[in-house]
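Notes continue from the previous slide.

Worked example: a multi-chain complex. Inputs as given:
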Amino acid sequence: DTGVSQDPRHKITKRGQNVTFRCDPISEHNRLYWYRQTLGQGPEFLTYFQNEAQLEKSRLLSDRFSAERPKGSFSTLEIQRTEQGDSAMYLCASSQDRTEAFFGQGTRLTVV
Amino acid sequence: AQKVTQAQTEISVVEKEDVTLDCVYETRDTTYYLFWYKQPPSGELVFLIRRNSFDEQNEISGRYSWNFQKSTSSFNFTITASQVVDSAVYFCALSELNAGNMLTFGGGTRLMVKP
């Protein structure tokens, strides 16, 4: 396990469809984060888990977004009824407690 | 509320030049952490450094150095003798102790190093 992995790397979907992304954190890390990055901007925090508990959610996370981390291992981020404004890079990161977070390569979502 | 500003959106230098990337932050917390990440074209954010608010010592790592000044709320990053492989977008970020481990990022600085 050399780092955070995300799947898929790219996703093109039609507006109105549901999509799900997966993140596998570094195995010993107990914290997992989701960020969203649009073109030319810095990443914006979406939500974070400590083990299986979702402890914080951003206002950016509308009710069409849901994230889970069953058993405190991998995490999924689902977007229902996608909109063109959801097009972005979705980044996952993990850390052990309050140490530095390590990021995956992201999933680039394009909604057409 | 926490905020990070990277006023330089794009910098272009010629290889071997030194370059400094500026970062200014705002926070009400007395305990916080500052970070720099590098984002090459592949998209993955690569961790470079973390400093806590009680440690104002400057740090040097090879060609990289960081200058943290609480008096001006700045955490600047200098690359000495830049190389083409340094070309990337660099992000400064802030995490407050009382805000979980959430990172607030600046808008990034795109660095282009030309041969």
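Summary box: Chain A touches chain B at residues 31, 33, 35, 40-45, 48, 55-56, 89, 91, 93, 95, 98-106, 108 (CB under 8 Å). The two ends of chain A are 34 Å apart (CA to CA).
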